[in-house]
Structures are given as C-alpha cells and as structure tokens.
Write a structure and sequence with these properties.
GO terms for molecular function: fatty acyl-CoA hydrolase activity. Helix content is about 15%, strand content about 30%. It is an alpha/beta fold and about 400 residues long.
Length: about 400
C-alpha cells in the first residue's frame, strides 16, 4: 500500500500585523529539492492589482524558510524575508504611473500569498496553487483613533494613540502633490505618537489660490497640536517630505509660533525665498522651468529646477539659525529634487554658523525621491496632481520621476 503524500502547507506568522512589522513565512510538506514560486497579490484601494514573486528550491526535507533561504529569481533575489512586500509591482497590463498608497487607513491591506509548483513568472491566475494564506497588514493599530480636523481654518486628520497620554507629537507634511495623505500618520500613531496629517495645496483648501501654503496655515496647525490635551507641548516634531521639507525648515527658522523639538526632512531642500510666503517657492521654480529635463520615456526630471544652489542668502533658509536637531534623509539618485546638493550646502552653512552638531544626514546610494516606510513597494515613476498657477489655483497631472531603489 502506497503512503499518501502530505499536502504542502504555508505557515505565516503573524497573520495580522502592522505594515512595518516583519512576518515569517515557511513552506513545508514539499518534495525534496522541489522548484516552487511564492507569489503575493493585493488589490489596492485604487482598484489596481499588485504582485511580487520569488523562486525557491526546497531542501532535502521538503522545507522552505523565506527568512533564511534565497530567492533565485522573480521580483527580488537573495535572502529577503520581506521581499514579497517591498518588491511588489503592478501586474502586467496595469495603468502606467501607479504608486501604492493606502487611502482607507481604517481597513487593512490584504495580501494573498500562494505557492506554485515550478519557477513561474506569469500566468498565476491560470494555475492552481499548492497552498495559499492571507495576511492583513495594518497602518492603524487597535485603539488608535482617527479624528477629522476642521478648526481654525485648518484641514487635516489627527491620529491619537490608545491611552490618556500625554504623547509626543508630529506635524506630518507631504509634498507638492498636495492632498490629504493619512497612512504615514496612522502608522506613526500606532507607534505612540500623536500625528496630524495636514491637507494643503488642494482645490478644497486653496480657495482659488495657494493661500494655504501661507505661513499662518502651518502655524495654526502646529498650535492645534500644542494645545491638545493629549500632547506633550514641548515634544512636537515636524516631518516633511519634498516640499514639506521646505515648509519644515522655513517654519523652524523664521516662525515665532512654531518651535519644534526636532525636524525630520525627507528628499527636500532649503532653497526658497526668505521673504514672503512659502507660495513664492513656486515662483522660483517657474523661473528655472527651462532646466526641466526628460528621461528616455519622456517623463519629467525636475532636480535641476533649484540648481545651482544659490549663494545669495535671500534665496535659501538660514539653517545656521536652527536651534533644534535636524535629520536629513537623502536619496543620491533623486531625480525630482536636488536633495544631495541641498544637504551638503546645509552642512556647510551650519558648520560656518557653529551649529552643525544639530545636523544628521542619512544618504542612500541608488535611492530616489520617494523614500517611504519599511517594506513599502518601490516606485520608479508615478503620476500626481500639482499646482501650476497661484492665481487660478489650477492643478495639472504630471509624471513624477521618483526613482526609489532602497527599502528599510
């Protein structure tokens, strides 16, 4: 009598966790030295499908452990325990310019993971999986509260950790694409921070202009955080990405209202007119629009719009006046913003002023403009809406060159 072969099994732990939490993935009950493909699939909030896959070979006991075993091909190579997340890409035939952004933070990102016989690179839907498992990846931990903010002319979303507090807090500023982006704030709150995701530079908040890029708008948002009963008023940071970095640096130096405990600046620059509103940054960019370049697929490269870094002190934030620690996160292949040159100029300015001890720079070779949270999919190019007219509050769609080739 022939002994019946055991059914392959996928073991994943934890099945439910935060998006930046590692999981373990094991395949057992395979044949000896069997070629398999592990495949991950998600259906995004935008209605698009994303996938990742890796090629593995089981050992003499019919076992694959993704934490220790190498992927021999697929969307990632080598020992990459979280490769099935960070190497995700739109499935073939998808719309161009996609970027994976969680819009509904109160729901999880549901990931379907399956194992297939053989080394496959396509046609997963037409094949029957040997085994499958589902994992939920959350941005909001249990107990985190989401609160809409519309007070004092400010529009945004406040995320509060569970418990009475008081907690350290952050003002969360995204870039020139504008809009209300919540998933980073939701995750920060899941790790114990009160976080205010601020909406600005959108038709809803602009009132026919980019007035909500004015200094008073950000000061009002900072004040909301400072006065909140669950916030430590002297422990408020500003986190800025791209144009959000311009806001963070300008406010920290020149505002009499905003006194942050520290700044975290991702892929940004200190180059901006010192006098007037932050809206004037767009005026400087428009002056250098002739420096726009395009890649081989006619996608926009903007990194030269603020180059060369000006020597005129009225054209950049006097970071020598900074009184709080600053973390600059730089991608050395940033095709969107002169982040590397800006960080170097900031270093020189702060050395001359004697406050360079406040500056820490993390510089990643090969990384681009869009540096996101751990295990987020890479995004080489994405499309977004940007303001092109301060007078009319107009917005247009742009292919945004965001080469990202590093994961945390």
């Amino acid at each position: 009598m022939t002994e019946k072969a055991e059914t392959p099994m996928l073991l994943l732990h934890p099945c439910r966790g935060l998006i930046d939490e590692k999981f373990s993935l094991i395949v057992q009950n395979l044949s000896q030295i069997q070629d398999i493909t592990l495949h991950a699939l998600i259906h995004s909030d935008d209605g698009d499908y994303w996938e990742a896959f890796g090629h593995y070979v089981s050992d003499a006991t019919g076992f694959v452990n993704v934490a220790n075993d190498s992927s021999l091909g697929g969307t990632y190579d080598g020992v990459e325990p979280m490769g099935l997340l960070w190497s995700m890409r739109p499935v073939p035939g998808s719309r161009i310019g996609l970027r994976l952004r969680k819009k509904e933070v109160h729901t999880p990102m549901v990931v379907h993971i399956s194992v297939y016989s053989g080394h496959m690179s396509q046609g997963f839907r037409e094949q029957v999986a040997l085994a499958s498992v589902v994992t939920e990846r959350w941005y909001m931990a249990p107990g985190v509260r989401r609160v809409d903010i519309t007070e004092g002319g400010v529009t945004g979303t406040l995320f509060l950790p569970p418990g009475p507090g008081p907690f350290p807090a952050l003002l969360d500023l995204w870039g020139g694409g504008g809009g209300l982006v919540e998933y980073r704030s939701a995750l920060l709150s899941s790790h114990g921070f009160v976080s205010l995701a601020l909406e600005y530079m959108t038709p809803r908040t602009s009132g026919g202009s980019t007035s909500h890029v004015g200094n008073e708008y950000f000061e009002a948002a900072f004040t909301i955080l400072k006065q909140h009963p669950q916030v430590c008023g002297d422990r408020i940071a500003i986190l800025g990405l791209s144009f959000g970095t311009s806001v963070a640096l300008g406010m920290a130096v020149y505002s009499t209202v905003i006194q942050p405990r520290c700044l975290v600046c991702v892929s940004g620059s200190h180059v901006q007119p010192v006098k007037g509103s932050l809206s004037d940054v767009f005026g400087e960019i428009k002056k250098n629009v002739r420096n726009t370049r395009y890649d081989e697929e006619n996608r926009v490269i903007w990194r030269d719009l603020l180059l060369p870094i000006p020597t005129d002190p009225t054209k950049k934030v006097d970071v020598g006046q900074l009184k709080c620690p600053v973390l600059m996160i730089v991608g050395e292949d940033d095709q969107n913003w002169p982040a590397t040159e800006s960080a170097e100029d900031m270093k020189q300015m702060m050395e001359r002023a004697g406050n360079s001890n406040l500056l820490t720079t993390l510089s990643y070779p090969g990384a681009g403009h869009l540096i996101e949270m751990p295990y987020s999919p890479h995004c080489k190019v994405s499309s977004f809406l940007m303001p092109i007219s301060r007078e009319r509050g107009a917005f247009r769609k742009s292919d945004h060159s965001c080469r990202q080739s590093v994961h945390n």
